[in-house]
Amino acid sequence: MIILIYGTDRFLIHKECENIAKKSKIDSFGINQLDLEITPLAMVLEDASMPSLFGDKKMIICENSYIFTGVNKKYLIEHDISLLEKYLEHPNIDTILVFTVLHEKLDERKKIVRQLKKRAQILECNLSNQMEQIAKDLLENYRISSDNIRLLLNRVGTDLFLLENEIEKLKIYKWNEKTIEKNDILNLTHKTIDLNIFTFIDTIILKKKEEAMEIYEELKKRNQEPIAILIMLANQFRIMYQSKELLMRGYTEKSIAETLNIHPFRVKKALEKARAYNSDFLLEYLEKIRNLDYKIKNGWIDKNLALELFILGI
After folding, report:
1. Whole-structure pTM over 0.90, yes or no?
2. Domain 193-312 falls in which CATH fold?
3. What gap in Å lies between CA 34 and CA 276, rounded to an integer?
4. 37, 81, 82, 179: which could form a disulfide with 143 (CB 3.0–4.6 Å)?
5. Top-tier CATH class for 131-188
6. What is the mean pLDDT of each run of 10 residues along the chain (314 residues)?
7. Which CATH number, 3.10.129.10, 3.40.50.2300, 3.40.50.300, 3.40.190.10, labels domain 2-124?
């Protein structure tokens, strides 16, 4: 079986892969995650052609499959598309080969895309205005009013990985009653700072000073200490740098999370951001933050003023 999953929502793509594995009764030992940015297509197809070591069937997930889109992606290696064309004619029936790509549409002008439409399964994962229904689906058999659904979405936002995590907390807390009330949402969920930190990082890297200052002012309203903000910035840049370096060495997202001892969601977010920047650039910002932290701790500059000057000087 060959499946191509595309769309702009990473969460939905991830869920589709989970559902495919569940329906096919393939556990984590039978799943191999690869990245077409660093893995040759020839190696992927060689793996797909071989029998599973852990059961009757195995699943291969190939991320960043931009070869099926119109994106002019500069891969580190060359991909021989003709090998996939040949594999489509005689696929291994014991291998579920899944290609995923974070892109809104496929390039139907490409011969390989037209062939996949005939011989493979194509799934679209673009998020539309269905957040309330998605939240209800995640809550399963728990009771919740429409007003409280909207309250939950207003607090957590539309990041589906984060929404799922927050809903899981609510479900565990109300396991017996199976009813989610307003106070449950207010007491157990929060507008996580990580969402703003990633936006903050983007505005700093893109030198959008006004937007960065607006976010900083919002963080201060939430009683976030400048030192704590600097630490979070440094941590995010560090995770972006380390994740990028490990990915280049052939690590999967799962193994990166295990190596860095952090949640896989943080690795996904970090890699999503880090791909746009080279390692030297990320190290440069880490050095700037380190120097600023040193000056604050030695009393050379006021902490509030220091962060403001840092933003204005980007």
Report:
1. no
2. Zinc Finger, Delta Prime; domain 3 (1.20.272)
3. 19
4. 179
5. mainly alpha
6. 88 87 86 88 92 80 90 72 93 93 89 93 76 84 90 78 84 91 86 61 80 80 76 84 90 87 78 81 86 86 84 78
7. 3.40.50.300
